[in-house]
């Protein structure tokens, strides 16, 4: 497990800790998360914590990457039936991302590291507009199994690696375990609560910190490879 994936990147790789004369022509990684329910056992900032860890993993692997403070709110309307969920919606999120991209022109490019699937529509629209304006932007998200899409074994394992004290395994339980494509119609009509009473889409059984470390490393490697390819393509 590298320091970057577990949260130990150098201070110089964090934009929020820099002074303005220290900010040069780096690539800016913007973690994009959410504040939403993650079952009875995971914290509401799970997506944000994972996106931030992956951005730090990128900075540990690719030179001259700076990690911006994470965007902690996203399009989470499907989780609105659960207390604690805060959502700014797709249109507002799109505008936030567009303005962040426009304000980052002093950087070589911007990589949005997305930790929440509900942000995808806003992210695609924002990236399309920013690219049409001539800006260098990349969007990336970790891959996962369709039957383990929310607060299941994958996210539970990763949070056991990142913040074990915030994981309540004593109340962890399975939710809807059908593949996400099979649940989408009901989910769109009635939100996550219509398909899973506890808010879990998957089964956290068998989660472990070791599994979380492997997943973080694999994702961080994939992200770094995608960014290297993007930079090479854009500069050729």
UniProtKB/TrEMBL annotation:
Transmembrane keyword on record: no
Cofactor(s) for this UniProt protein: Zn(2+)
Family indicated by similarity: Belongs to the creatininase superfamily.
UniProt-listed GO biological process terms: riboflavin biosynthetic process
Name used for this protein in its record: Creatinine amidohydrolase
InterPro entries: Creatininase-like_sf, Creatininase/forma_Hydrolase, MftE
Keywords recorded for this protein, A-Z: Hydrolase, Metal-binding, Zinc
